[in-house]
Amino acid sequence: MFNHISLLVALLIILFWGVTISFALMVDWTNLSLLAVILLILLQTFFNTGLFIVAHDGMHGILFPYNLNINDAIAALALILYGGLSFRDLREKHYLHHRFTGTSLDPDFHEHNPNFCFWYFRFMGKYVSFLNLCRLCLLILIIVNLFQIHWLNLLLFWALPLIFSSLQLFFFGTFLPHRHHQDNQYSLGAIKSLHLPMLLSLITCYHFSYHQEHHRYPFLPWWQLPFAMGFSQSHF
């Protein structure tokens, strides 16, 4: 049951992202109020984050486990749309993160410096390669020239939401849950969850504030994480 719902939810997120980004890039922003511009940026940020969450579930093989080729294809598409990222590279690093959480082998670990800015830029440097940037620039050039998009639309409704989304994912998915780790000491108990109200948890980062639950039950899709509180593995 989870598998079909996960696939449907993933496709809906990709669809909603496509609709909102198409509107945002083509709209005459000068006809929008400041409030409308801000809301559109926030909405696009939310769906950008959704793309990455879709890809993340794909890394765990839970988008469509009946056919991992389809699972991987959807996850790879989500990452390309998100920021021209490589599904294979990110999946390898994410496996290391789960296997060696809080150690020097964990690519997400802060290694002696939990300062937010330092950690964020170091984190991004590990996941965004020169090839990714080239792929992204090529994608931008194609889109801009093909659809004659104004550069300010691109900045407001594509670049800013992408940056905000990366900050959102890092803050709720790495910084808050993993900053309490001691160097090279793996412990699930050191991973912190923020048990926010359901709607707030969804808005902040698709329930990724339930981060310890994710590490305990990586086979659960993101929308099931709030219900994993207090579960034991015998329930699954």
Rg estimate, integer Å: 18 Å
User: Tally of extended strands?
Assistant: 0
* Class computed from helices, strands and strand pairing: mainly alpha
Order of helices and strands: HHHHHHHHH
Strand content: under 5%
Helix content: 55-70%
Cofactor: Fe(2+)
GO molecular function, one term: oxidoreductase activity
GO biological process, one term: lipid metabolic process
Family: Belongs to the fatty acid desaturase type 2 family.
List keywords for this structure.
236 residues, mainly alpha, 9 helices, globular, disordered C terminus, transmembrane helix, membrane, oxidoreductase
In brief:
It is built from 9 helices and no strands. The chain has 236 residues and is mainly α.
